[in-house]
Every structure is written in structure tokens, then in C-alpha cells.
Amino acid sequence: NVGTDTASVSKSVTSVDPTGLQLYYDFNDGSTVTNKASSVFGSTDEASATDGNLNGGLTCGDTSKSGFGTMCDFDGSNDYIEVGADNADAFDSQTGTLMWWHKYDTGTGADTSMVTMTASSGWGGGEFDFNVNVDGTGKLRSQFITGASGTEYLNSPASVMSVNGQWYHIAWTSDGSTTKLYVDGVPQTLSLVVGSNTGRWFGDMATTVDQLGIGGTIRSGFGNAISAGFDEMYIFNRALTETEIDDYIASSSPIVQSTIVSATGLTDNTSTPQHYAITNGPTQTTNYKVHSFT
């Protein structure tokens, strides 16, 4: 039995399905970032030649932002990771999922780039950006640009991610017809800024768009640097379901790997998924969806 105010929750971690997993960065490698989709998850779909190059003095394996062990801490100045020219062409699917853990920093400027796909030769062919703090309000944005006829800007609600020092799980998906966003496993309502939501993805970009960047925007130079922590990044060539995203949250978050956590706001004797705050230790609170509890 559980009470409506406080309960002990037992959460088992479900095995995750690596089908279509092209990239997995655990950000534990120090001076390099290695794609471990195959070595960790046994994925047969790992994109070749997609280890990342660290720039600006960035090192991964940082423990300075507590709560998630080792991760990458970007300084908001000149830190970024680049999957170099041509190699990022491996992400050529018109369906997919991009997800990672992100620790928000109020030092992040408006319209700052988290993850981008750009052309190594410069602007040519457009770009595909995933931005944070859009308009300075904490919104997230998917920004697909291929010229006036192909442009799509999709915004999340305001302040969906804006608490300083808070870890959030972000997942963008496309099934080839509709783009979706989940924050901490919760589906978000996306508003149209430009164009329509037709599910544009990496494979819809021109072949000149060949360079994946993390921590800012890479064109002929580097800009839009972000101040934030990154951990546990995945790229799939298919759209994960909400349940699969929940499973990956559970498998990658030390907060919900603990057998017993403290929870508030649960309703007794219901199997309906509920969102609530859980705390494991003094430094970390996050949101998670409970599907069953005792």
C-alpha cells in the first residue's frame, strides 16, 4: 500500500532494445569521446567513424556537476565536440531519436545550441539545430533549415527546462511524419514558429550537411556555445516509443537505479502512470513516471 503523500517506490530497470542504435556516448573517456553503441549495447547499427573530437580544452569524465558521476561539462565559451566532416553523413535516416541527459545552467544565453548538424563547408545546404533557452524563456526548439520552403521551427512550452543546476532528460523523435519532444519522459506540446510539423530528420538534409556538433554550432567557425553538463547521449535511426524512452531513462539515471527512493504525490492503488518528484541523496531531484509500485 502507498499513501497519497509519501511512499517507498520499487522501480525495476527494464532491459533496453538497441535496435537502430547508431551512436552512444557515455562521456567517460577523458580526452576523447568514443561511440560505444556496439561495445556496450551490442548494436549492429552503430554508425562507423563517429567518435567525437574534443575542442576548446574540453575533457569528458568530469565530476564537477554532482549527481551523475562522470560527464562532459561545457564552459559556454569555446568547448564543443565535433564528429568531423563527412563522418556524420552516417546519420542519414528520415526517422530517428536523439536523446541525452542535460544539466541546465542559468549562464546559458538565449537561443543557444545544444546539438547541431551543419555543413563543414559553411552554410551550404542548411542545418538542423536543437536549441535551449529560446527567446530567453527556457523553451527548447527543433530548428530545421533548408531554405524558405523547407524550414521548420518547433518550440516547446516556455520554461520547460529552466531550473539552474537541474538534470533533465531530453528526447526528440521523428517517425517520418511528426516530430515529438519528451522532457523527463513527459510528452510536450510543440508549437509551430515557422513551417509545419512534418517530422523532418537528419536524412532530410542535403548531403553537404555532414558535421555533428555538441555544445554549440559549427559552420566555418564555432558559435552559440552552451554552458551545461551533458551525459548519456543516444542517436537511433528509428523513433522510440514513450515506453522505450522511459526504459532508457531508467537504465541511464543513477537516481532511479536505486531500489528504494522517496516519492511524493502518488495516488494509492492505481496503475495509471504518474509523474512525481523523487530524491536520491541531497543534491539531485528529477521527475520520473511510475507504472507500477508496491
General description of the model:
The chain is mainly β and 294 residues long. The protein has helices at 37-41, 242-252, 254-257; strands spanning 6-10, 21-25, 53-55, 60-62, 71-75, 80-83, 96-103, 112-119, 127-134, 139-145, 152-155, 167-174, 179-183, 186-187, 191-194, 209-214, 217-218, 222-223, 227-236, 260-264, 274-279, 285-290. The strands form 4 sheets. Strands 2, 4, 5, 7, 12, 13, 14 and 19 form an 8-stranded antiparallel sheet that branches. Strands 3-6-16-8-9-10-11-15 form an 8-stranded antiparallel sheet, with no helix packed on it. The chain has a 4-stranded antiparallel sheet with strand order 1-20-21-22, with no helix packed on it. The chain starts with 5 loop residues before the first strand and ends with a strand. It is globular, with a radius of gyration of 18 Å.
Compute the average pLDDT.
77
Number of helices: 3
Note the beta-strand portion.
35-45%
* N to C succession of SSEs: EEHEEEEEEEEEEEEEEEEEHHEEE
- The value of Rg in angstroms is 18 Å
Helix content range of the residues, please? Answer: under 10%
Measure the end-to-end span.
6 Å
Question: Which residue ranges are poorly predicted, with pLDDT under 50 across at least 5 consecutive positions?
Answer: 1-14, 254-263, 268-294
Number of DSSP strand runs:
22
Give the overall silhouette: globular
Structural class label = mainly beta
